[in-house]
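pinging the channel bc i need a second pair of eyes. not urgent but kinda urgent?? the chain im working w is below, pasted from the shared doc
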Amino acid sequence: MSMNQPDRTYLYEINAQEFASSDDTQTPQQLKAQAGIDPTHVVFRVDQNAPGEQLDDATPINLSGRQVECFYAIPREDAQERPHFKLNIDGQRYESVRPDVTGDDIKRIAGVPANALLFQEGRTGSDQRIEDSTHVNLARPGTESFYTSLPADNGSVAAPPRGPIDAQFAALQQGYPDAELTHQPDGTTWIRVPGVPLTPAWAEARATVKFVVPNGYPAAPLDCFWAERPLTLRTGAAPANSGQNAPFPTDLWFSYHVQGWSPTENSLLTYVGVIRQRLNAGN
């Protein structure tokens, strides 16, 4: 290096985060150390159309090319097969062969209109609007979830529906105006429905029921439900197949399973009908 030439910085990305090196040649082991990544992870070079080349820890990498070199690192046990990165879009599961995708890539994967608005569900905070050029890292532990909404006629992006769950919840509220929806940090959704009418077999005239919408809904079916106490049979006997269970341990849990769930024909509203059918049995 010339005495009058300033030191050069060489940029690279690993797991969609940018770092800089003063040396134009680095090994994957050195890249992981600088990025604070578990040294046992396996490093792949990112390719635009495929998962990319797996690199040995001692492989020298030239960072002085015209483009910024991109890599991703994953646990060794996840690298036994050619990795595909999972993502959830509008309640459906998809896969990408690349860990670094843009908003435009995500919409193409899901086959949604190019003018659709795309949002990423926050794991612990608020959701984020994803522009077509925004880069998203799919190599993080867990599955990233997204939802789409077509823009309003005036181009407004305020209060977009959150995929099929919010759209179906709006229909549920037509029949049960006091129903409540709470999105949880783990990606599930809790539904609370007051005012469900009961038959004379019960001591109470109405019940408040709750159920959990799982990750992957509507492909993943709804299962079981809870009823807020008091809920007692007029005979004084305990309801069949009931007890206590998380996430509502103080409520009465009903072990009740839907047979033949159809993600295209069933909805949150029809599931409340399933719950009513179980309670109408009066046992």
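so Residues 1-6, 154-159 have pLDDT under 50 and may be disordered. and The helical segments are 28-35, 103-110, 163-175, 268-280. — does that match what u expected or am i reading it wrong
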